[in-house]
Amino acid sequence: xxxxxxxxxxxxxxxxxxxxxxxxxxxxxxxxxxxxxxxxxxxxxxxxxxxxxxxxxxxxxxxxxxxxxxxxxxxxxxxxxxxxxxxxxxxxxxxxxxxxxxxxxxxxxxxxxxxxxxxxxxxxxxxxxxxxxxxxxxxxxxxxxxxxxxxxxxxxxxxxxxxxxxxxxxxxxxxxxxxxxxxxxxxxxxxxxxxxxxxxxxxxxxxxxxxxxxxxxxxxxxxxxxxxxxxxxxxxxxxxxxxxxxxxxxxxxxxxxxxxxxxxxxxxxxxxxxxxxxxxxxxxxxxxxxxxxxxxxxxxxxxxxxxxxxxxxxxxxxxxxxxxxxxxxxxxxxxxxxxxxxxxxxxxxxxxxxxxxxxxxxxxxxxxxxxxxxxxxxxxxxxxxxxxxxxxx
Length: 393
Fold this sequence. Notes:
Elements: H1 9-15, E1 25-29, H2 42-51, E2 56-62, E3 83-84, E4 87-91, H3 101-104, E5 109-112, H4 124-135, E6 141-145, H5 181-191, E7 197-201, H6 229-238, E8 258-261, H7 266-274, E9 281-288, E10 300-307, H8 315-329, H9 349-354, H10 358-364, H11 369-390
Parallel strand pairs: 1-2, 1-5, 2-4, 5-6, 6-7
Antiparallel strand pairs: 3-4, 8-10, 9-10
Helix pairs in contact: 4-5, 5-11, 6-8
């Protein structure tokens, strides 16, 4: 691992004394991970500029899990209200997911400073998309101080079928998309919001191949169940377990790295998974007991997933292999969860996560793992020109 001092978009704004935002009326969309290299929060910097009369901070707006990451479990709405140092607080994961006309009153700039984790299902990029949608035709600039993709520029997984649009995939994007949040914004502008007044504040010293540790930046967990950088590495696959009756480790201290169910036979399952020669990982059998969420207060048989080679590891392939073998070995116990899930009340949760229904059907049919991989690799390849056009680094 090489360590460089990367300057995030927020750090660049600080170094420039926020001059490009002087005179603006700003809605700041952020959460607890919106910190600078000195660990000081974006709100503190913006409020100092507000107090000095350099800009007007109209409101603070938080995404899923809240402005300070206070909603621990998944799909728990929170409502805004109240103030922080006299600045109103609004929620975009409750009654509203898109800024309302009332929220936008008097605003000429929306600053979206959120730490994405590099996976299509992570809702922060879709909160960004809703902000871009809301600003269209209103002479409102969208400013995105860019932040690293913590799992680098690698790409994996299927793209997106418009029939499976949801808040875990509003627009076509491969599962592991390999873009920074600023690059996602550019992609959205290029393909869907050509009239958007978008400005991405580029990072300095950043390279797409970097994992988060390579940046030299302090880590702040972007949501309660992404506590470590290791969590982000496995998340593009293990998030799929949310759509099943398997525990993805919520309610433990290492969600997504831990997974299992009370009815696993870890010896036979490990043998089945090893037959696929999955790269870059080691599975360690253990027991765990979630304190909330699935199987709360029950003993689960399961595994801790150790990533031994990040460059070789394929999180999406690994999880599809797991689901294929669990479906085969435990047909009477495994099940796909029914809706609702993330504001979708009709389509299967797994299908909206995957962006299609062919993958779930292929797993049910026990189709060859490598044949499934070839199909989603073809989808990812077709998306490549759009991703290339969005690249900043």
